[in-house]
Amino acid sequence: MKKIEAIIKPFKLDDVKDGLSNIGVRGLSVTEIKGFGRQRGHKEVYRGAEYQVDFVSKIKIEVVVDSDLASEAVKTIQEKAYTGQIGDGKIFILPVEEVIRIRTGERGNSAL
Amino acid sequence: MKKIEAIIKPFKLDDVKDGLSNIGVRGLSVTEIKGFGRQRGHKEVYRGAEYQVDFVSKIKIEVVVDSDLASEAVKTIQEKAYTGQIGDGKIFILPVEEVIRIRTGERGNSAL
Amino acid sequence: MKKIEAIIKPFKLDDVKDGLSNIGVRGLSVTEIKGFGRQRGHKEVYRGAEYQVDFVSKIKIEVVVDSDLASEAVKTIQEKAYTGQIGDGKIFILPVEEVIRIRTGERGNSAL
Amino acid sequence: MNTGDTAFVLMSAALVMLMTPGLALFYGGMTRSKNVLGTIMQSFIILGIISIEWVLWGYSMAFGPDHGGVIGGLDWLGLDSVGMEPNADYCGTIPHLAFMIFQCMFAVITPALITGAFAERMKFSAFLLFTILWATLVYNPLCHWVWAVGGWIRGLGALDFAGGTVVHISSGVSALAAAIILGKRLGYGSTAYIPHNLPMTITGAALLWFGWFGFNAGSALACNGLAASAFTVTHIASAAAALSWIILEWIHRGKPTTLGAASGAVAGLVAITPGSGFVGPLSAIIIGAMAGLICYGGVLVKSRLGYDDSLDVVGVHGLGGTWGALATGLFASKAINPAGADGLFFGNAAQLWVQFVSVIVTMAFAFIMTFIILKILDIVIGVRITEEEEVRGMDVSLHNESGYSF
Amino acid sequence: MNTGDTAFVLMSAALVMLMTPGLALFYGGMTRSKNVLGTIMQSFIILGIISIEWVLWGYSMAFGPDHGGVIGGLDWLGLDSVGMEPNADYCGTIPHLAFMIFQCMFAVITPALITGAFAERMKFSAFLLFTILWATLVYNPLCHWVWAVGGWIRGLGALDFAGGTVVHISSGVSALAAAIILGKRLGYGSTAYIPHNLPMTITGAALLWFGWFGFNAGSALACNGLAASAFTVTHIASAAAALSWIILEWIHRGKPTTLGAASGAVAGLVAITPGSGFVGPLSAIIIGAMAGLICYGGVLVKSRLGYDDSLDVVGVHGLGGTWGALATGLFASKAINPAGADGLFFGNAAQLWVQFVSVIVTMAFAFIMTFIILKILDIVIGVRITEEEEVRGMDVSLHNESGYSF
Amino acid sequence: MNTGDTAFVLMSAALVMLMTPGLALFYGGMTRSKNVLGTIMQSFIILGIISIEWVLWGYSMAFGPDHGGVIGGLDWLGLDSVGMEPNADYCGTIPHLAFMIFQCMFAVITPALITGAFAERMKFSAFLLFTILWATLVYNPLCHWVWAVGGWIRGLGALDFAGGTVVHISSGVSALAAAIILGKRLGYGSTAYIPHNLPMTITGAALLWFGWFGFNAGSALACNGLAASAFTVTHIASAAAALSWIILEWIHRGKPTTLGAASGAVAGLVAITPGSGFVGPLSAIIIGAMAGLICYGGVLVKSRLGYDDSLDVVGVHGLGGTWGALATGLFASKAINPAGADGLFFGNAAQLWVQFVSVIVTMAFAFIMTFIILKILDIVIGVRITEEEEVRGMDVSLHNESGYSF
Ligand SMILES: Nc1ncnc2c1ncn2[C@@H]1O[C@H](COP(=O)(O)OP(=O)(O)O)[C@@H](O)[C@H]1O
Ligand SMILES: Nc1ncnc2c1ncn2[C@@H]1O[C@H](COP(=O)(O)OP(=O)(O)O)[C@@H](O)[C@H]1O
Ligand SMILES: Nc1ncnc2c1ncn2[C@@H]1O[C@H](COP(=O)(O)OP(=O)(O)O)[C@@H](O)[C@H]1O
User: Fold this and answer.
1) Ligand number, closest to the Cα atom of C3
2) How would residue D303 be classed by pLDDT, with cut points 50, 70 and 90?
3) C18–D contact, CB cutoff 8 A
4) Where do transmembrane segments lie in this chain (chains D, E, F) (predicted)?
């Protein structure tokens, strides 16, 4: 099994989620994060004092999938999160050793 | 060492934390996330317009443990987070290569 | 490639980010988390009722780097996040199998 | 008719109206964020429902021509013959409608106060029915007894300038009955019910304080020295209680809290209410300071007694109102209000007895009636939401909404 | 000069002033959090810009000596000869300045109401220009026609006690024109524009309700029985509309919402505005209850018609104001205000016709003028922010700020 | 006694009371979220502590029978002989108590203003002591000098209608002393002290604006043409300053900000305060517009001078108050207030000199006294929280609470 972590633009979340759903992904987790990267942040000004905010709001999607599904999932994310603008984000693939469903105790692929 | 990531129901956090504490886990990290899965979200209505909210509030617990402790930790989480209802969540186990404690520079198990 | 996850004190974020930038890290992601560990939380009192809050606000930095850069990155984080007080946090190193940049489809180190 | 008096009473009515949304914020901030809208909604919709009830039959029951000291007649249903002219019985210098709408705001906030007791767990439909029944069967008669010409408690000579019994004791005691019947919230004892937004709570307390000037000073129903005096003692008692509460908690818990300051301020306002037109400024300091201490104690005791009065209506309004009503019997002075009476400290022990009687009667009546109403409602339609609804929170479960989406 | 009347009108002016920040919260809470400041800013800065406009030329155009029933003269530019003495035409018992500043608050809130239609997407510079032009070319003339001595709609005998046409229909219809010209927000149809902070919205609604007492009762320009009556019906209509809105949505969507209660309350306040000095309490219940139903319907229809009136200005103010103006022609009664007229239900069908004419004229005038102003602005400087600015949100894009940083 | 005047002053007192919670929100929103309660608490508890101080000895020191122009006697301790009858010296047409409680609200808000200077880092106990000492040793004497019959600055003929020197310069200059003694916040220069909740700040600004009508117009102590005039210029100056501030920052920083609009509005209110009963509407536009520019500059200069006046009390209240006091010497006109004086632009250069003297005296007195009080407190008990407390935030460290828990 693989864990796919994708950092994407917030307004792409629904598209990505629906895309993953369509290829058979049955669950995923979403976190609001602040990203730092090539995409520049913005300036804020409070009573004449200027602050550079380096961080950009991003969404992190975490989804654990059967290794067979991984490349398709990556492809789907790539397509659905794509705008072509800087800051579209990254996808990271990490190894997962085991998965357990709390409710049933199932393990492995059937726990997904 | 292993990293255990558990997605659980928010109101189970204290039980799980205490359970892990009891078996000797000395630290963990908690993130509020939005989960998408078999458990359905809810409907929201604003001035007659209906929105389906697919995401459910969940808590992600991340805990890095000595490999020996991993299975006990998983068992504890399973027990403490259990309600038997859909949406109880998942546990993922990932490999960890190294751990460093910032304050002391210790590495490996003694850094936990 | 390695994924470095560092749990640090919130007010050290800017220092750590700048330090990593200086050694050539071009992107990272930041999450607000609640930490439980040796550093004790605080007491809250509402109308005479006392609550022990075990969790402490922490920042989690996630950064994926070329394996060669990993140890330097760890060193940098160690230095920049250091206060010498309990609760300075941990650094975890995890293996990463693949990285993809959504915008360009690049993979591996060049996607970072 | 006097334009100054009318301006004062109408503006006071506006201020008192604002207290109910103020209360919504005060309570809303103390709940968990999943219940913020459900809590606010209860106060807000009472503004809707009781205002209509008051116009249709409430005002007539409360202030209509007396029947045996017990209840007003139905002569003024739908505000029939309540018009632009003064009414000699209640408001010689202002339009009868001004008096009616001023009183309307009191009728509104009283049941809203009770909602703090059953916060985070009551069915919305049951809540609406309860509110209408409570207003009709508890508030209207009680209001008649205490304030209407011919009302039997008024006849005893009990002093209640702005609603110690009618508003605060009645809601505080009803809150106790409600907390008992509704039962404890899920997780009571293990879950931390931490306020989700204290700045909201403090904003609410500030609006309450602001509105209370209308509540108490407006109860002079004219804009004269007595109004200025009531205004002054209201402010002072609130200030003193905010201080005494935080000092006590500083000693008891090691630190003074913001929620304590806000709670104390409200406790002081509650306690000065019945005496606001009868006591002087130094008495007000004592009444307020004691109120802070007493209500702090009342809130603490709750956990011992084991009922889940979620937002401390019993401790603050029940106890504070009781202390205020009795304190009126201690500190009232004809030097302040010749139309009133002297209290124990001014040589008239009898007044304290009368106050005591009015307190006991109010308590017994409100508690029993509320208990019966809720019991019947519970049997007939059920008063409590399901476990799942409670876990999800009222906002999503009862109203299909979320308070925040940052 | 009468001190009571003056106190009442000045305090009413203060209350009406508070409505604009109240509106800022009401609207601000309904937007997404990235636009909260941009939305609040529009209302807040209107307080600045229109107050100055009003003093410099607005008041003179609106209430200055009449020219042909169409517009006021420039004799009162910069408040020249608007002083501390009463003005026999408008305010026999209060200082002329008190009347001027009371009216100033109306001139301020009216364009602020429109901002809900183009929320989350208008350029700040274009918005400022639009506001000044709209005040000058739409509000000031309309205000003159309806309220000034010599104004031609006033001459027809149309009744508008506190601004049904001048304030609500004019802003509601202008909102429609603005929504059409600005176009839909990015993501319309697919993105969920969920309110980011409903407690803020409800707080805003509460401040609107509170301020509306000044708006309507203050329009009596004296503190007498009529003021008390206007105060009363204002409260009642709002209460009734809050109830009818949530009952309808309970039936229609299965659950009553907090936003619905707040929206209903505002709808009721809008609808009672023109008739507040002419109708009695039972009529107010009907006017309010109908307003809740009509405006709920109006909001629903929006999505059918396909314009993006983001915060429902058309549905609430346009429709509510229209219903209110016509309802005045139905329910007005000389028994309430001998200086008014009877409506259809009191035997005078002609009044309904007059009301109808005033509504149609206001609609046509406001819609056409707003359309032209915005069209020209769009051609000359562009009215809409860029896509990237819209995605980032107004707060960061237009104001270099963030609303929250918890 | 006049009911209209009394209604006006009592309602004004209620409005001014609301300014202190308004200030709590204004300041609270600008701090970081970990300090929101600590900041709000300082204003809120001042409502408690100073109200009691005022009743017990403050009012007597400030307005009691004069001793040598320097201080009031202790004849009115505990409000002895301050009753329901008018007092010929201060309030011929309203109850003495009404004047007292109106003034109480001024005594409350003035030290609350200072808290912005030492936000996020002062010990609570030291803060309480400082507040009591400052009120007793700075505010009460100054108030006597400027406003009491017999006060020596009043004797010079200095004009200060509603508190330019007494309230704003005194607090602004004391803020400077406090910022110097307290020192900079941890991380000054490297940490971004970004406001955590600007909608809260703007809500606070709106309540300040609203309350300021009571502050300035209420200072007429009667409800007449002068009150209407003061009300009008207050509104106009605030509007003008909101505009001028954002225009200047638009030019200087490229974008107009919401915080700028709110800050400008407050600056305008500050600046018009001393002249509000003496200047006309066009003068008010100039005074307000200049205030926006001057205070914007003042805020900018801060970072150059290197003291950490966290929430810009010096820049807004100190500078704004100074400009206002001097502007009164320029724009005052007997045509507006025959009981006042003409300013430079109306042919009387001497008035500017008198104003200048009153400013300098106030500055010197307030700065020196505050410096001494804080220095002594620092030596005796320490005024600053520990580093660890500061890092954790005041809410948890000083009050065992958290502002939010969403
Ligand atoms: N090395 C990295 N490790 C972890 N997260 C990263 C890394 N590089 C980028 N990110 C995340 O991806 C987001 C997008 O990256 P950015 O460099 O702005 O644009 P792009 O994806 O177009 O290369 C960043 O905001 C950050 O959250
Ligand atoms: N494949 C997955 N990858 C990551 N997170 C998942 C995955 N499947 C489920 N989750 C998380 O677990 C939560 C619970 O899953 P759900 O399918 O609702 O119920 P259950 O745990 O009973 O199977 C989801 O809300 C989501 O946060
Ligand atoms: N085993 C662990 N797994 C995951 N996170 C941990 C673990 N131990 C500690 N942490 C995180 O590191 C933070 C700091 O740890 P703590 O024990 O308080 O101090 P120190 O870093 O000085 O040992 C904790 O608040 C928690 O977020």
Assistant:
1) 1
2) confident
3) no
4) 6-29, 36-57, 94-114, 126-149, 161-182, 194-215, 227-247, 259-276, 282-301, 313-332, 352-374
Interface of C with A (CB under 8 A): 3, 17, 26-31, 64, 94-103, 105, 111-112
CA D338, distance to chain mean position in Å, is: 26
Tokens found for residue A5? 């972590």
Lining residues, ligand 2, CB within 6 Å = A 27-29, 62-64, 101-103, 112; B 7, 35-39, 56, 58, 86-90
Residues of chain B neighbouring A28 (CB-CB closer than 8 A): 35-37
CATH architecture under which domain F3-399 falls: Orthogonal Bundle (1.10)
Take residue F366 and report the two structure tokens written for it. Answer: 């307030």
Nearest residue in chain D measured CA to CA from B43: D400
pLDDT at position E93 is 97
DSSP string, F75-139: GGGGGTT--SS-BTTTBTTS-HHHHHHHHHHHHHHHHHHHTTTTTTTB-HHHHHHHHHHHIIIII
Identity at E261, one-letter amino acid code:
A
Alpha-carbon distances, residue E52 vs B32, E16, E55, E81, E87 (angstroms): 48, 17, 5, 17, 22
Give the residue ranges of chain E where pLDDT is below 70.
Answer: none
What distance in Å separates the CA atoms of residue F355 and residue E222, rounded to the nearest whole number? 39
Task: State the burial class of residue F309 (Cβ atoms within 10 Å of its Cβ: 0-12, 13-18, 19+).
Answer: buried
Burial code (b: 16+ CB inside 10 Å, e: under 16) for B32-71 equals bbbbbbebebbebbbbbeebebbbbebbbbbbbbbeebbe
Whether the CB of E402 is below 8 Å from some CB of chain B: the reply is: no
CA atoms in the 13 A half-sphere facing the CB of D74 = 3
| Region at F123 (left for phi over 0; alpha for psi -120 to 50; beta for the rest) | beta
Query: What's the CA angle centered on A97, arms A91 and A103, to 5 degrees?
Result: 100
pLDDT reported for residue F303: 84
Distances from the Cα of A91 to the Cαs of C59, C102, D293, in angstroms? 21, 7, 60
Give the whole-angstrom CA distance, residue F201 versus residue B24: 46
Kindly give, in sequence order, each residue whose CB lies less than 8 Å from that of residue B63, ignoring residues fewer than 6 positions away.
B3, B4, B6, B20, B25, B27, B28, B29, B73
Mean pLDDT, rounded, of chain D: 97
Chain B residues within 8 A of C2 when measuring between CB atoms: 97
Contact D144, D61 (CB under 8 A): yes
Question: Containing H/E element for D405?
Answer: none
**Other C-beta atoms lying within 10 Å of the C-beta of residue D261:** 27
Integer Cα distance of F35 and F397 in angstroms:
10
CA distance E307 to E315: 12
Q: What is the pLDDT along chain C (112 residues), one digit of tens a residue?
A: 999 999 999 999 999 999 999 999 999 999 999 999 999 899 999 998 999 999 999 999 999 999 999 999 999 999 999 999 999 999 999 999 999 999 999 999 999 8
D108-129 burial by CB neighbour count: b if 16+ within 10 A, else e? bbbbbbbbbbbbbbbbbebbbb
Cβ neighbours around D305 below 10 Å, total = 10
3 state SS of F307 = coil
The runs of H, that is alpha helices, within chain A are 13-22, 67-80
Atom 27 (ligand 3) nearest CA = C35
Q: Name which of D211, D232, D220 is nearest D93 in CA terms.
A: D220
Domains of chain C (ranges, CATH numbers): 2-111 (3.30.70.120)
**Does ligand 1 have an atom closer than 6 angstroms to the CB of A38?**
yes
Q: How far is the CA of B90 from the centre of ligand 2 (A)?
A: 6
DSSP F147-182: HSTT-HHHHHT---SS-IIIIIIHHHHHHHHHHHHH
Cα dihedral: D64, D66, D71, D74 (round 10): -40
Domain residue ranges of chain F, discontinuous segments joined by +: 3-399
Q: How far apart are CA D8 and CA F81, in angstroms?
A: 25
Q: Are E245 and E266 in contact (CB under 8 A)?
A: no
DSSP type of residue D384: B
